[in-house]
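Recall that a protein's primary structure is simply its ordered list of amino acids. Everything else, from secondary elements to tertiary packing, is in principle encoded there. The following example makes that idea concrete.
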Amino acid sequence: MNSTDIINLLLREHSEIATYRYLPFIFDNKIQARISDFNVEEKASVELAKDYKKKYSISFWEAYLRSCETENNIQRRLTKGALFHKPNSGYLYIENDGVDSLKKIPKDLCVALNSEVILKNGTKRHIPLLDFKIKYFDRNLPIVQEILYALKLTGAIVNSGKSYHFIGNRLVTSSELTELLAKFILLHPISDKSWSAHQIIEGSASIRITKKDNVFPSLIATIN
C-alpha cells in the first residue's frame, strides 16, 4: 500500500469531506537559486555550511547557523535566506467522489498532499500530516511510534524513502494542527523542525505522495 492508497482509504472513511487538495512539489529551493551574486565572504560561508552539513548530517541552514556561532561570522543576506518562506501556490482542488485521487493528476507531475479539506457543510478541517527527520531504519520505527503515541495520533506511518511520513486518520481544526506542528518542533532531531516551522507559517501542512528517486512512499505500519 502506498501513500495514495492510504489517502483514498481516508477519503472513503471521511465521506463528510467534499474537497481536498494537492500541491505541485518542488525539490530544489536552494539559496543559490535566489542569490546569484555572492560576494567572497558569502561564498566562503556557503562552502563552510556545506562542510558542516556533511560532517554533522544536518540541514544546510542548521549548518550555516552553527558555523556562525563557531566561526563568529554571520552574513546578513544568508541569515535572511534562513528565514525565507515561499508561499504555496498552484493548488489542485479535487472533489471527493470516490475516484482514485491520482487518476485526476497528470502522471508526470510530482505532488504533495495538503492537509486542508473542505467539508460538505462548508467548514474547513485538516488531515494531520508529519514529516520526520530520523532516518529510515527498522530499529527507528519504534521511536516514531512512541512519538505518535505521545502526540495522541492515529493513522499510517509511511516510508518516505529516507525517513518517515505520517498521515493521520482523524481530522483536526486549524488551531489543533498548529498546536500539533509546534509540539512536533520540540521533538527535533527526530522531527523535521524546519518543515514544521514552514507549515505553521503557511497555515497548513504538505507531504509528498508521488515518486522521488523512482520510489513511492509506502505504508510500513499503522498506529491506533
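The chain has two domains: 3-28+86-223, 31-82. The helical segments are 3-13, 40-56, 60-71, 76-82, 141-150, 174-185, 193-202.
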